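Reply to dn_fold:

You asked what the input looked like. This is it:
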Amino acid sequence: MTQDCDCLIVGGGILGLAHALAAHRAGMRVTVLEREARAVGASIRNFGFITVTGQEAGPTWRRARRSRDVWAEIAPRAGIAIHQRGLLLCARRAEALAVIEAFAATDMGAACRVLRGREMERFAPALRPGLAGALLSPHEIRVESREAIPQLTAWLAGQGVMFLPRMAVSAVEEGAVVTPAGRFTAKRIIVCPGPDLATLFPEVM
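and this is what came back:
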């Protein structure tokens, strides 16, 4: 069997799904090959935090904000529940509070608030007394990975992305991948197989 598409993605975890979304939005015919019946790796074993605050300044921070924006846009369309919004970072000592205050004064601290004393107690009564203060960030969201990955996969399939589960890739060549079912060809091949990278590209790894 030989199948052709515009963009072929190896791996149906969150990296593969992100590339599938981007390629589909660019008007490509997208096929995703996943060796298991569904994603079972790190993509569903993590805590589902989309974290912005505290990321390294520059490209990493901008990428984190973009990632958060994509999740916030796609989640309601795909029926993915957002279980938590925002972040409360507590400071036990005055020195830690000084770091929080310095962070809040930067561009990365935009829309964040520094809470102190009774304001912090009113916002989060369960906090133990005696804390120096806290940083309240509105930027973070959290999804439940075990729910979100299958829901995102199903939504992308409904948008026209083709998913082929139980399709193990044994080799990646120029313009093609090899599977037990035959060769798949594409102008663009994106490889996101988690630990399988060590098998597919041992010389690189």
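The first strand starts at residue 2 and ends at 10.
Hope that clears it up.
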